[in-house]
Fold Fe/B12 periplasmic-binding domain-containing protein.
Amino acid sequence: MKTKMIMLCWLFAIIISGCSSQTVSTEVKTDQNGGVMITDHAERTVKFNEPPERIVSLAQGDLEIVYQLGGNIVGRPTARIQPLKELAEVEQVGTAHDVDFEKVVSLKPDLVIGHADLNRKDISTAESLGLKLFLTNGNQFEQIVEMIDQYGTILERKNEASRLIANIQQKREAIEADPLPREIKALIVYGTTESFMAALPSSLSGNLLDIAGGQNIADGLPKVEHYPDYAQLSMEHVIAKDPDVIYFITHGEPEAVKEKFEQELRANPAWRGVKAFKNDQFIFLPFELFGSSPGPKVGESLTFLKESLDQVAVKGE
């Protein structure tokens, strides 16, 4: 039981590192000496006199953006998500909610990237250690695009950033130009065998579901206090809304999570009428695309959802 509860806390920590209800617009200025000043997602103005050459990232999505733009990564987050093979040997420096500052300092970075919610508490510590901290939130599709543009400016790789953004936007435009053939009601469940939460439209996965054309049956449910982009899941609500498909996001024991969810639904005699059960539409979303901010892979996340919804629409006809 204790191990499962630790896993639950770890999963929710990963979730919040990719999701938050805060929305901040990018602000970029230059000073008379040519330095670049960028407002991060914690509403702090961070100045860059030159592109950083040694970068530590506490966020997986940001790490992959910076790497794709040609940044030099010297420290990466300690995570169960398999890193890019090119970065497998890079030093691990803890997580966004538990930073190993001794290791970070030893790497002599000129930029440390953190999460705007989880690492806000670390600002004074970072400053006392002489570290430049830049905080972001990859909560919505638009915010991830904004982050790519920010890093393009910081690294002086604007052309590379523009190409990456164009590729992602093209995927979105193609999806929006090809609407689903019928209404598809969907539920996205985050969880372990101990607890389940439903992704609200304000979460990243909820935002991607909306762009892909799915109808989120969790819309309107009360928010969880410490995870405002998620709702506590009611099996009665699932049965009443009758989703066409139920998506799961979990790390480890996926079949056990599915079995536990089915057990809870079966406790209500009406469960047999739920379309997702009748048509066997239980789908696990790839953790590397949906477990936290996917960074430059957000186009792949969006494409995966759209193709899945298309298949559900055909099967349910």
Observations:
- The chain has two domains: 23-175, 185-315.
- The mean pLDDT is 86.
- The first strand starts at residue 27 and ends at 30.
